[in-house]
Amino acid sequence: MGEFELIAKYFSAVGAKRSDVITGVGDDGAVIQVRDGHDLVVTTDTMVSGTHFFANDDPRALGHKLVTVNISDLAAMGAEPAWLSLALTLPEVNEHWLSQFSAGINETAEYYNCQLVGGDTTRGPLSLTMTAKGLVPRGKALSRSGAKVGDYIYVTGTLGDAALGLKLQQGLHQVSKKHQTHILQRFQYPSARVALGQALRNIANSAMDLSDGLYGDIQHILHRSAVGASIDVQKLPLSQALKDSCDNNTAYGLALSGGEDYELLFTVSENKRGSLDVLLSPYGVAITCIGRITGAIGKLELKKSEQTFSYQPQGFKHFA
Amino acid sequence: MGEFELIAKYFSAVGAKRSDVITGVGDDGAVIQVRDGHDLVVTTDTMVSGTHFFANDDPRALGHKLVTVNISDLAAMGAEPAWLSLALTLPEVNEHWLSQFSAGINETAEYYNCQLVGGDTTRGPLSLTMTAKGLVPRGKALSRSGAKVGDYIYVTGTLGDAALGLKLQQGLHQVSKKHQTHILQRFQYPSARVALGQALRNIANSAMDLSDGLYGDIQHILHRSAVGASIDVQKLPLSQALKDSCDNNTAYGLALSGGEDYELLFTVSENKRGSLDVLLSPYGVAITCIGRITGAIGKLELKKSEQTFSYQPQGFKHFA
User: Fold this and answer.
1) Closest approach of chain B CAs to the CA of A168, in angstroms?
2) Candidate from A44, A48, A76 with C-beta closest to B131
3) Residues that bind ATP, according to the entry (chains A, B) (predicted)?
């Protein structure tokens, strides 16, 4: 089977069928009708075998995660996800793998109302790159650069579960039976906070998604916004599963430096803070205030019971 | 040096500075103001070390080619190139390589008035994926699916030079000294037919770019348009350099199945054919009529002096 038949079979009709896609998979490029009065938001994420996943990982979960990590970036911008491109590099044709991987992409893309509109399939070491595109009302995109001194810092959901899930999958950490499914699910089938991200458009001063761990990720907001931050580690939202599975310090470490949570980190000024719970309650996602933005440019201060919390960051960095 | 500093150093300001880019490199995603009344065109191409190039190839030429192959797809759609995303997978940090590669992207992106707006850098086997985005007036995008029976088939420029350049670079074919620079240039620094592609918007019934060789590529038009084609191999436009370097059959073989020419293939109905030379002459690119579209669905007929030309295709196919 040639490259083109392969693509046609597994990737010609993936995800939602959107009426704004004039030309999808199969031409030199995709043609898309962008909604007037909106800005386009574009993001790209690569997952490399041996770096971000293992060659024998469940291909359906990989397809799910590839879509989710990209959609999560769009969510952090306050964008509505819409169109996906896939660059797939494969060492060989494995039909079972392809069918499962494309099924994972298909069901997740459909869930987020996204259509796969094109891409490229090549031969080489297993690697998955997705470019996701979405829409935001003109001028309403969230960014990492808008945090203001005095802003309250919030995160969605709970932190550290995905990192514990990775340890569990690798056999490096025990988790009691009743929590195993939840913890593995958080690692293998993460969710993107799309509705909440859109709800933050007129509320948050800055936002980003947590992919490499809070401790490292928040530095981007500090850098781009030229501010500092003070975080109370005791306020970090931890799941019951995480608390039951780890001692305190391990739990704080996973919450601070464990990657792949795909929760949102955002900052809100004092005058918008009062109505926050009411405005965000319809989205069914817990939000937790974990600290404040300070004027100490580039400085991240961790506190516990009003004491400085001493912490050696273990954030994931390629090329570190 | 961490991943983020690396990206910031070499990829934070690459290509043209466009006023429609609200947020570029450095946030969760790029934010782009799309021109009203236009459709968005998106294309993705991957180049894998060992499959599409060699690890010791000139990184500046690689940067140039990565941009050009993507822009060429936009040209084939009649689109105006605008924004690029780069997914770069590297086995290690090599500053010389990075500086040359980003210089190649920068100068080529600038030439085509494109801005690099984001991407991802990861560790793994060397691989380059670019997603290019462009604009076309609403409803005016060219496609592979519009060819009509009776259309005249045209190609731009000359065919087979890039394939000869690859053989020359590999030491597999001799080329006389006076032609070497031209032939290597055609392989290492191809051009995308952007202005001509835009000029074809109201002229061509179908169009595509030639990346894998005419013989294989035209099948996409036959398949998508449900037509056939008859091509006179004696009409294939060959450069003097190619004719001087090869016997007739080798030259036809390179022109039919040699990849990476990045010329445009397009079809035009009889009633638009008369004014074609006049309309396209300002673009300084030769066009050559090489045959007709027929009603024999899916059939590609090659002729030479009115006789059937017997040819064993050698088109490049991943996973073939």
Assistant:
1) 24
2) A44
3) 119-120, 144, 211
